[in-house]
Amino acid sequence: MRSLPLPLALTARLLPVAVLAAAGWALASDPFTAAPTAEHKPARDQPAGAPSAPSTAAPARKTYTASPAPCAAIPVASVKALVPGAKTAGQEIASTDKSLRRTCSWNALKGFDYRWLDVSYEIKDSDAAAAKAYQARVDDKSGGGAVPGLGDSAYSVVNLTTEDKQETREGVVIAQVSNALVVVTYNGSDFETKKAPGTDEINKGAIKAAKDAVNTLKGGQKA
Prior knowledge:
This protein has about 220 residues and is α+β, with helices and mostly antiparallel strands. It contains four helices and seven strands; from the N terminus they run H-H-E-E-E-H-E-E-E-E-H.
């Protein structure tokens, strides 16, 4: 066969290379076929119907799953000291869900002195939920102060009210213990003098009851 002239032969040999090079340049310059960036890596192929990887997040653990019996929260000696003349068994207040909220009440009039004591337990879904509820109650009752050494956090406030010249002084203690709230209300009046008991008496009484109630909670049912 007759040999092709050198320029034509060289052209024939280089033509496939030029075509491939042109095709490669077109692929590289096509914006629709650009390589993905590090922020948008394509997902690896997964067989249809294959289960997804299980979550490693553990559910929140609840320290307390139910409220203790509130009428057993305060020792008999404390009831007698705080509410003279009251039935030490107390009276539990009706609740729509006793596993989540329970309250017991003691009250009595001895002579002209009247005292009232309430103890409530509230069980929340988590420590965070209890902390949020605790803070909301504290914000609602300004003017008090922290109670050191009581639960995770505790707050006490005392207020004086007057109605028809009769004074009543009331103390409230709110304590958070893990996922539970303990709320104590203690008040008193003197119907002879129409004066209220002193702030110190009511505050110390409410804190004493709160400490008893927290001890009962800690010694009761846990998850």
